[in-house]
Amino acid sequence: MKVYFYHTQDIQRIMREWGEGRFPGHYLYGATQLGDHGIDVVFHRYRPLLLSRWRLILYNTWQILTCREHFDAIYATHYRGIEIIIFLRAIGLFRRPIVIWHHQPMVTAANRLRRSVSRLFYRGIDHMFFFSEKLIGDSLASPNARPERMHLGHWGPDIDFFKRLQREHPAGRHYGFISTGKERRDMPTLVKAFNDTGAPLAIYLPESNDISYRRLFDRLDVKDNIQVNFVSGMIPYELSQKVNRASCVVICCKETKYTVGLTTIVEALGLGLPVICSRNPQFPIDVDKEGCGISVPYYDVEGWRQAIAYIMEHPDEAARMGRRAREIAETRYNDTICAREAAEVLRNLGYRKNA
After folding, report:
1. What share of the chain is helix, strand, coil (3-state, %, to 5)?
2. 142, 192, 319, 336: which could join 106 in a potential S-S bond, CB 3.0 to 4.6 Å?
3. How many CA atoms lie within 13 A of 332 on its CB side?
4. How does pLDDT run across 176-196, given as a tens digit for each residue?
5. Angle between helices 236-244 and 262-271 (to 10 degrees)
6. How many domains does the chain have?
C-alpha cells in the first residue's frame, strides 16, 4: 500500500533535518514510521505559505491530481489546503479515500447554506483522527459526525530524538522556568505571575508579522527575572536544547476550544520535564491526575503564583513529575504509537479504496 502524505508545513525541510537528527519526527504524525507497517509514502511537495489561501489550495489540488506516483489514499495532518480534493471525493470525482487529523471539534453551522456545505464537505473525509476524547465527544453533537470513522490518535513525542538530544547536550543542573510556543499565549497573565514571584523565566516567542507580541511587550511591565527572546523561523532543535536546561515548562494560553499548547506539552513529555499549564479541557492528558504537572484556570494570576511557588519549593516533587512525564511519553503517547494507529486505519482503507 502507498499513501500520499499532505502537511501544511515544510515537509522537505522537516524530513531533511529529521534525517540529520535535528528535527523531531512527531511533526510528521507518524509518516516517517509507516514503512515499518508496510505502507510506502509519497510526500507532498510543499509550497511556502506566501501564496494566498486560494492559490495555495489550487496548487495543492494540482499537485495531488497530477502526481505521477500511484497512491491508494491521502493521509493529511489537516484539511486546510486540500478542500477541493475533499469536495471532489464527496461527489465521487476523486476515488481515493482521505484520512485527516481534525484539530478542532466539529460544529454545527449557523445557517442552512453553511450546514449544507459542511455536510457535503465531511462526506468527503473517510476517517478522522482527533487528539483527545473531549474533541471527539464535542464533535458528536454535530450532525456530520460518524462515530465509526472517528479515532483517537495518541500523538506524542519522537522519543529517540529527545534521548539523542539529551545525550549530545546534557543539561547539567536544571534551572528556572521556560515558555515557548506562539499560538494564543496569554502573556499578561504569565508575566504578572512571574513578576510577583520573582522566579526566573525565559520566554521565547516568534518573530511574526501576524502575531504582534513585540507590541504587546512594549505595553507590559516586565521585571528583571523575566528574559524575553524573539526568534526567527522554525528552530525546534535549538529551542529543545534550551527547554532541556529548564526545571519546568510553562504554557499559559487564552481560552480556546481546541488543543492550544499541546505541542509544548509533547516536548515536555519527551524531555521528562514537569509542566504548569492553562487548564484546557481539550488536552488528551490531565496533568494533575497524571501527576506530571499542575494546571491553572484561564487568566488566574493567583493560581499561577501558587503553582510557580509550589514547583520552586518542592524540587523533589517537581523531579518526580518530570519522571512521570517521560514514563507517559514512553508508554502511551509517542510517534511510534501514533504511526501504528495511523497504519491500522490506512491498511483497512486499502481493501475498499473505491468505497
Report:
1. 45, 15, 40
2. 142
3. 13
4. 999 998 889 999 999 999 999
5. 60
6. 2
Segment 106-126 shows an average pLDDT of 92
Q: What is the mean pLDDT of residues 193-218?
A: 86
**Cα distance between residue 318 and residue 322, in whole Å:** 6
CATH number, domain containing residue 36:
3.40.50.2000
Residue 56: partners with Cβ closer than 8 Å, 6 or more residues away = 47, 49, 81
Residue 341 pLDDT greater than 50, yes or no: yes
**DSSP bridge pairs for 99:** 75, 127
Tell me how far apart the alpha carbons of residues 246 and 201 are, in angstroms, rounded to a whole number: 9
> How far is it, in rounded angstroms, from Cα 292 to Cα 17?
30
pTM of the model: 0.93
Task: Assign 233 a pLDDT band (cuts: 50, 70, 90).
Answer: low
Cell numbers that stand for 252 in this block: 499559559
Are residue 295 and residue 339 in the same domain, yes or no? no
Instruction: Clarify whether residues 177 and 66 are in a common domain.
Output: no
Whole-number pLDDT of residue 351: 45
Please tell me whether residues 170 and 269 are part of one structural domain. Answer: yes
Domain containing 27 equals 2-156+334-352
